[in-house]
Automatic annotation (TrEMBL):
GO terms for molecular function: transferase activity. Residues 41-134 form the Glycosyltransferase 2-like domain. The keyword Transmembrane applies. Keywords: Membrane, Transferase, Transmembrane, Transmembrane helix. This is Glycosyl transferase GT2 family. It comes from Butyrivibrio hungatei. It comes from the Bacteria.
C-alpha cells in the first residue's frame, strides 16, 4: 500500500495523535490542524503511527477550503481521500478504496458511502454509476476519493469563499464537484461503505436565518450562473414547508436573490 493511498484530513483544534487513533486511520495521511480556539505557532512534523506515515501541518488560520487545499498541495500518493475530524473509519477501508480504483480505471473520482449522523443524511449510494450534472450536489467531502495526478492536472481546488471559517455558508463540496465535472474529470459513485460520522453539532447551520438564504444565493450564482434565480426559486419552493415557515417563500426568495446579486461582484477564489 506504500505510496498508494493518502488520507487528507481537515481538523480544527485537535491533538494529532489521539485524533488519528479515534479515526482508526490505516493509511498514510496529511493532517492539516487549524488553531482557532487554542494557542500555538505554525509547525510541520512527520511521524509514524501504527506503521503509517503521517505529516501534520499546524496553522493559525481558518477556512475549510484553505485546509483542504493545503493538504492536497502536500499530498504525494497515487490515490487521495478527503476526510473530516468527526469520521470514524471501518477496519479495511483502505483496501476497499484501492480495490474500487483498481477495478474501475475509468474513474478519476469516486464517491464512497459514509454513514452520516441521523438527521444530516444527504446521500446513500445504492449502485455503481456515473455522477453527472444531475446528481453531483449531494456529496460531502468525506465521501470523495480521487486519483491525485488527475485532480492536480485538472487545476481544481476548493473555494475559499464557502464552508466553515469562510465568508459564506456551506456549499464548498458541491462547488468542488461542479468544477471537477467542468474540467472533464470522470466521477462515479459506489456502494462501498468506509465508516460513519460521529454525532455532534453542525459547524455552520444555525437555522433558516437571513444569512442562510443570502449565502445560498451566492452559492447558486457560482453553481448555475444565469439560471441561479430560477433554480433558487425551485429549491425554495420544493422545501418551503421546512425552510420558509418563518420568513415565508417570497421573503426567503428575496434574500436569495440579494445573494445572487452580490455574488456577481465577487471574484471566485
Amino acid at each position: 500500500m506504500s505510496k498508494r493511498l493518502q488520507m487528507l484530513i481537515s481538523a480544527v483544534d485537535k491533538d494529532s495523535k489521539s485524533l488519528l487513533e479515534q479515526m482508526n486511520i490505516e493509511s498514510d495521511a496529511v493532517l492539516v490542524n487549524q488553531f482557532i480556539k487554542t494557542d500555538g505557532d505554525n509547525y510541520e512534523e512527520e511521524f509514524q503511527q501504527n506503521g503509517h506515515t503521517v505529516k501534520v501541518i499546524g496553522r493559525r488560520e481558518k477556512g475549510v477550503g484553505l485546509s483542504r487545499n493545503t493538504a492536497l498541495e502536500n499530498a504525494d500518493h497515487e490515490i487521495i481521500q478527503f476526510a473530516d475530524d468527526d469520521i470514524v473509519y471501518d477496519q479495511g477501508y483502505a483496501e476497499k478504496i484501492l480495490k474500487e480504483f483498481d477495478d474501475h480505471p475509468e474513474a478519476d473520482v469516486i464517491m464512497f458511502n459514509v454513514k452520516a449522523q441521523e438527521g444530516r443524511e444527504t446521500y446513500w449510494n445504492e449502485d455503481f454509476a456515473k455522477v453527472t450534472w444531475k446528481n453531483y450536489g449531494r456529496y460531502p467531502a468525506y465521501a470523495i476519493c480521487a486519483r491525485r495526478d488527475k485532480l492536480v492536472s485538472s487545476g481544481v481546488k476548493y473555494s475559499l469563499l464557502f464552508g466553515g471559517g469562510a465568508p459564506y455558508m456551506n456549499g464548498e463540496d458541491s462547488l468542488f464537484l461542479h468544477d471537477c465535472l467542468k474540467s472533464g474529470l470522470s466521477l462515479y459513485r459506489t456502494t462501498v461503505a468506509l465508516g460513519h460520522e460521529v454525532s455532534g453539532e453542525s459547524t455552520w447551520f444555525n437555522g433558516y436565518t437571513d444569512k442562510f438564504f443570502y449565502d445560498r444565493g451566492v452559492l447558486y450564482h457560482f453553481l448555475y450562473g444565469s439560471f441561479a434565480s430560477i433554480l433558487g426559486f425551485r429549491y425554495l419552493f420544493n422545501n418551503r414547508k421546512t425552510m420558509c415557515v418563518k420568513k415565508g417563500l417570497f421573503k426567503s426568495y428575496h434574500l436569495l436573490n440579494q445573494g445572487i446579486k452580490h455574488a456577481k461582484t465577487l471574484k471566485k477564489v
